Structure to design on (171 residues):
């Protein structure tokens, strides 16, 4: 009798155990899993820079909300944002000034543009970072050309390690 009274009291008070249901990852809102630069970084190189936001799942193309965190906290955009082929990483090319702190809301309570294909808005994420004090001295090459040259040098080292006879014949 005591057990029945306890169960009845629990049911009346809303203390019953919820029914267990399997959850589907596609039903959850996307979240930011990585940023470049990493949030809180204090030495981002000034100049042209590609900010990258990676989400936990594929996102709807042509849909984003890069909202300034405070007045003048967002850098000058150098083009339209776009997603990489994985549809998880959104890239925005910007111009960063030396010695400045930047902040963006990736979605916000007011703006919900970052959404997955099922229209679930991403959980808001605050990205803040600061640039270094001086512009890097460059040879006048574009950042893309410098990156391509560095990649080519890496490939040469990798190839020469795997094919030393071929590299000797080319020398």
């Amino acid at each position: 009798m005591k057990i029945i009274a306890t169960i009845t009291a629990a049911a009346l008070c809303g203390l019953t155990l919820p029914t267990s249901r399997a959850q589907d990852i596609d039903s959850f809102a996307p979240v930011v899993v990585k940023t470049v630069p990493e949030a809180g970084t204090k030495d981002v190189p000034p100049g042209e820079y590609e900010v990258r936001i990676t989400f936990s799942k594929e996102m709807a193309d042509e849909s984003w909300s890069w909202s300034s965190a405070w007045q003048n906290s967002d850098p000058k955009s150098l083009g339209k944002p776009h997603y990489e082929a994985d549809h998880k990483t959104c890239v925005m090319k910007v111009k960063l000034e030396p010695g400045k702190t930047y902040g963006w809301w990736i979605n916000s309570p007011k703006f919900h543009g970052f959404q997955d294909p099922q229209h679930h808005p991403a959980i808001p994420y605050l990205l803040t970072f600061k640039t270094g004090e001086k512009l890097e001295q460059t040879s006048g090459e574009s950042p893309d050309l410098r990156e391509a040259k560095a990649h080519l040098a890496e490939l040469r080292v990798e190839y020469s390690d795997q094919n030393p006879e071929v590299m000797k014949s080319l020398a």
Remarks:
- The first strand starts at residue 32 and ends at 36.
- The radius of gyration is 25 Å.
- Confidence is low (pLDDT under 50) at residues 3-17.
